[in-house]
Write a structure and sequence with these properties.
By secondary structure, this protein is an all-alpha fold. Helices cover 80% and strands 0% of the residues. The radius of gyration is 20 Å and the shape is globular. The two termini are 28 Å apart.
């Protein structure tokens, strides 16, 4: 059995800069993945396709990432993790350039598939590396810094990308992301120490994790809440433009408010989830249900739409933290395997939600998809409580059956 050792950087400062480089890598990936949310109508208009069909630019990366997370992690299990992270960041840069120069919708979808490949591999490998970059007492803080990239993608990435798209065209937004990916690649090469594989994730480890009851609970809750969120949030820009009547520039400002709330939700949930894991997760689901169900009624005014999006952002900011914590609690001794299952399930459901939401939007309306998503989020909260009650523990308990 191999001994896990801390890969010691040249100094504590370099170690923390390496953590920040990982955070920026995931930030760039998350922003590349969800950027079409803010640019959906103009991308669709450029290629002559509907909003629902344009939603495939959100669906495809999720599908590929769901497959890539276990595939890339298993096939490269014995390779230096620094090398893999750098290769994947180079792929992301190429994908964003390809999107910027796409002459047809099919080329655009190919670029989105490459984004999905990067998501599945980089997130699965990089999210659990904090323990090899900083001393043990700082691992929790370093992990929180890395995962803060998820809501930051909404706070800075999507609104900024939307603003750039409005001012200089959506293709320019992807070129800017490509340039950012190149800068992150340079930072990874400079700051990360060699990270040889230590615990090779195997198919057997993944299968054992999938058989655990805690994993089943985590999968169920994650599936429902992510399905609800991305089935609705993917189409929030058409809603704000068509139902609320906001101008494109105003939409970017609303998404910025949503993202700021998401960062707050990320850190609030990070504090609460250790003591009350399922209660925190259930509260996130309830708030998402409340806001999406209310949007068709209150979203006709700017005040109602902004208030709903802020509360929605606060709720969703806690979802990745709660979901990741649930999977790691089910497999505390194999964190990379837990991250693989988390990434794969999260991305697969992301894709399904965007796809099904698109079908509802094209068949009915953006208001209908909000109601459907709200009902699914409500089901998540109810089912999570039912799991806890069946195990004889209150939803906020950290005792047996904790997910």
């Amino acid at each position: 059995m191999s001994t896990i050792t801390l890969a010691r950087p040249r100094s504590p400062l370099i170690g923390w800069l390496a953590v920040v480089s990982l955070m920026l890598g995931i930030f760039t990936i998350v922003t590349s993945e969800i950027l079409p949310i803010g640019l959906l109508p103009v991308i669709g208009a450029d290629f002559g396709v509907s909003d629902g069909t344009t939603g495939l630019t959100m669906t495809l990366p999720g599908v590929v990432a769901a497959v890539a997370a276990p595939t890339v992690t298993l096939t490269t299990a014995r390779l230096d993790r620094r090398v893999m992270l750098c290769v994947l960041m180079a792929v992301l840069a190429m994908a964003d350039v390809l999107a910027a120069v796409a002459t047809s919708y099919w080329v655009m979808l190919i670029s989105r598939a490459l984004v999905g490949l990067t998501i599945g591999g980089f997130w699965s490998i990089g999210a659990g590396l904090a323990g090899r970059l900083v001393p043990p007492p700082a691992v929790g803080t370093a992990t929180a810094v890395i995962f803060s990239s998820v809501p930051l993608g909404s706070v800075l990435g999507v609104p900024a990308g939307t603003l750039i798209g409005d001012l200089a065209g959506w293709r320019t937004a992807f070129l800017v992301l490509a340039a950012l990916a190149v800068l992150v690649l340079a930072a990874l090469l400079t700051l990360l120490p060699p990270l040889p594989a230590q615990q090779a994730t195997s198919p057997r480890v993944l299968l054992d994790l999938l058989r655990a009851r805690g994993t089943a609970v985590a999968l169920s809750a994650t599936f429902l809440v992510v399905l609800a969120h991305f089935g609705t949030y993917t189409y929030v820009t058409p809603f704000l433009q068509d139902v609320t009547g906001l101008a494109p520039a105003a939409v970017g400002a609303v998404l910025l408010a949503y993202g700021v709330a998401g960062v707050a939700g990320n850190f609030l949930a990070g504090r609460a989830v250790a003591a009350h894991p399922r209660a925190t997760f259930a509260v996130c689901g309830c708030l998402i249900a409340a806001t999406t169900l209310a949007l068709p009624s209150v979203g006709g005014t700017a005040v109602g739409a902004v208030a709903s999006l802020v509360l929605w952002g606060l709720a969703y900011g806690g979802v990745p933290v709660c979901s990741q914590a649930s999977f790691i609690a089910a497999s505390p001794h194999t964190p990379e395997a837990a991250t693989v299952v988390f990434t794969s399930s999260f991305q697969a459901t992301f894709a399904l939600g965007a796809f099904l939401g698109g079908r509802v939007v094209d068949a009915f309306s953006v208001s209908t998809v909000m109601i459907c998503g709200g009902l699914v989020a409500l089901l998540m909260a109810v089912s999570l409580r039912a799991f806890s009650s069946a195990e004889g523990a209150p939803p906020g308990s950290g005792r047996g059956g904790r997910s």
